[in-house]
Amino acid sequence: MLRTRHKIALAKALRLPIVSLSRARRKGTVQTVSRRGITWSLDLDEGIDLAIYTFGCFEPATTRVLEESILAGDVVIDIGANIGAHTLPMAQLVGETGRVFAFEPTGFAHAKLVRNLELNTQLASGVVVEQMFLTDSSTESVPEAIYSSWPLKEGSNLHKKHCGAAKDTLGTAAMKLDDYVVTHSIQRVDLIKLDVDGYECHVLRGAAHILKTHRPVIVMELAPYALREAGESLEELLRILTAADYLLNDEVSRRPLPMDVDRLDAMVADGSSVNVIAQPANASR
Fold first, then answer.
1. pLDDT, averaged across the chain
2. From CA 150, how far away is CA 171, in angstroms rounded?
3. pLDDT tens profile 65-119
4. Pseudo-torsion of CA 170, 173, 176, 177, nearest 10°?
5. Beta-carbon contacts of residue 251 (< 8 Å; ≥ 6 apart)
């Protein structure tokens, strides 16, 4: 299992010939390209953007899970949507009768998400974008900055483990997902994609009613070190999931994962993360 900083190092090495070729063709590092039927505005100096540019998607294993899990007409929620790397493909999957709600708290990534939707008018009508920090209390203060950039050029003040750059959350509101669903009269939630770099417990505590009544599949990143940095723990995450009668499965193998803190923690090296699928016990879907 590669640590995130090692993945970034590989991405930097991959970037060099791509950017060199781009410059030889008199193109800049920000390009508009089409991948898998979606038009993207991509910055080749950013890790997520470069992955889409090079491989056609971000996180291929997660992409496969979403393709296998989402049906036309579904209502899905993308929490930590960033530039829309999964938002737009999910909009393709739910089709004209479904809906995607995308939440991104940083102005940096939110602006890129909006731009990518503007380039795909056939998908934009089925996506609701919110610059919002989902948490367990609507009165909670929003962190001044949240990691939403993984630059591939040398820089200062990058996270020591995942090499991310924090971006400001100016103008961002805090809200519980449970409250948002009620306020917007959302009648069903079929799937949640959750990637919030340590704030998973905050989000899930604020979605307790949704987990109990809607029983969505949750495709999420699990990074024990990031949970600790956010003042939470793997133990608390498992407590929340167990209380909601959810089980974890490995995203790639689909094998069950231990719901035991020590055993699960031992499977994820410090500075690393794994993507997992959280499903209600005895799920029919």
1. 94
2. 22
3. 999 999 999 999 999 999 999 999 999 999 999 999 999 999 999 999 999 999 9
4. -80
5. 61, 62, 65, 219, 274, 275, 276, 277
- One-letter identity of residue 192: I
β-partners of residue 194 are 79, 220
End-to-end, the C-alpha distance of the chain in Å comes to: 29
Domain 59-280 in CATH 3.40.50.150? yes
Q: What's the pLDDT tens digit per position in 51-69?
A: 999 999 999 999 999 999 9
Distance CA 58, CA 39 (A): 14
Indicate the residue type of 143.
P
Q: Tell me if residue 128 falls in helix, strand or coil.
A: strand
How many Å is the Cα radius of gyration of the chain? 18
Can you tell me whether residue 154 is helix, strand or coil? coil
Give the contacts of 230 (CB within 8 A, at least 6 positions apart).
197, 198, 199, 201, 202
- Number of alpha helices (DSSP H) and beta strands (DSSP E) in the chain: 12, 13
pTM listed for this prediction? 0.94
What ranges make up the beta strands (E) of the chain?
Answer: 30-35, 38-43, 75-79, 99-103, 127-130, 132-134, 145-149, 165-168, 173-175, 191-194, 217-222, 246-250, 274-280
